[in-house]
Please model this.
Amino acid sequence: MSWKIIADSGCDFINIPQLAPETTFERVPLTLQVGEKTFVDDEKLDIDNMMATMYAEKQATRSACPSPQAYEQAYHGAENIIVITITGSLSGSHNSAELGKTLFLEHNQANIHIIDSLSASGEIDLIVLEINRLISLGLSFNEVVEHITAYQQKTKLLFVLAKVDNLIKNGRLNKFIGTIVGLLNIRMVGTASSEGKLELLQKARGEKKAILATYDEMKKANYQGGKVIIAHCNNLSACQQLKTLIQQDFPKAEITFIKTSGLCSFYGENEGILLGYETH
Model:
């Protein structure tokens, strides 16, 4: 059986390490509009340039989801297709994936399962790796769907934002509060809710306290030493601090660092981290 794993650029992986046999991986990119410039979030994107352009731009910036036709094209080339998108509450990517499926099946045959991650970044990254692992075990399409649906129930996302410029520009955060965040070196610690919306959990002053708050939230969610993926935007230091803290309690915990995609850098901003973890 041939397989394809498809993700939008809410996933940080460009390539999946140790890809399962007879399996391909494809990202369907979102686009990022910064002033008059449009950036496509694919493997060619210069993220540092995009971020510099974004911080220099005073007007609102935005992202745009892939078209249904982009997904329809991605569905070609495999018998079994598993798709995962950034949370449908923040993007139309999931809806485009569903419409693309309808278009594809009008003239083609394949097994297609589409997952709304209800999340982003590190948690999507975890789920993508698990899909690949399940395929490598030789499971049937229905078995992979069953297992990944259950797996999604034991993964979560935490994010730590050091900057909130984009939230202010887009009117999602009061400018005065944003100024205070900058002046007082506040870090915003939050999560993706069960409905796929981003929720603030704690405000911590300084990176060290933010790291402690992040691990505190992991323990509250019943973290017991499972896999962790920390996606970061120019903040390897925070990743190392978190890894050290986690492995003090769970020395064998498998912890991976990865750089954020263009989309996740766009919203996580400089020094932001987006951490996916297994709760049990």
